[in-house]
Amino acid sequence: MTGRRSWAATAVALALGLSATGCGGGDDSPTATATTVGAPSTSLPATTVTSKPAAVTTTAPARPAFVDDVLTGGNEAERYTFQLTFPKLQGLADGSVQDSINADVRAAVGVVVDEFVTGVKDFGAPPPPVADQKSALEGDYEVARLDDGLASVGVRVSRFYAGAAHPGAVLLTFNYDLVTGRRLALAELFAPGAPYLERLSELSRQLLLAQPGFDQVQDFVLPGTEPKAENFAGWTLTDQDLVITFSEYQVGPYAMGMPHVSIPFASLRTLLDPAGPLAIHN
Asked: What is the pTM of this model?
């Protein structure tokens, strides 16, 4: 998988930076939620957006590329900050498709920031022992795939509410057909009526239980991998694999983080739609 940095490094950096201010007591951190896409509320705090320009070449045609955009801000009186780096697509031949994709991504991350700010207000001031803590939201992205036909990106966000036991994480995933600009649903990869959820459930359980420690938490793994669409909402594509990332607490306790499994396309070949995105672009 290609990307800007490893999830592991990002997660460690965020956890150290956020939890070091106070990580004791009960687990008051919010549960990770499924990705929600929509226009950000008009109450979103003032933010600034910056972009890193893509390198210009005179020896080859422009190709699709991602550069950084950033939502950053905060409120000193209410003791919170946020800085969320997310991808902005450049170099696509069809400007309207490119604009549509960028607007969709920005709206989704805007919702996450807006929900965080609302959560700070709902959580209230931290108790006196940790009254100097600040709530913080940080995030970065990793590109799983980007070619002339498909783009697949994950944005991992860590959010800490002052006074909580530890940060909580959430993953937003974005998968686009770069010809039409459509954001793809997982079901579109598979033939109509194909039992793909049952197959993903079976393979995910096998791959998770083969990882150290997961055989001890089957009471998490089994319900968290039932053949339900919501259990496989965090998906991205590489050149060879379908990668499923599970939410915190979905298939293991908090200490196990957000584990993932990589399922080779070859294991799904009989279920894929022969006219679907993977058949066309693979």
From this structure: 0.78
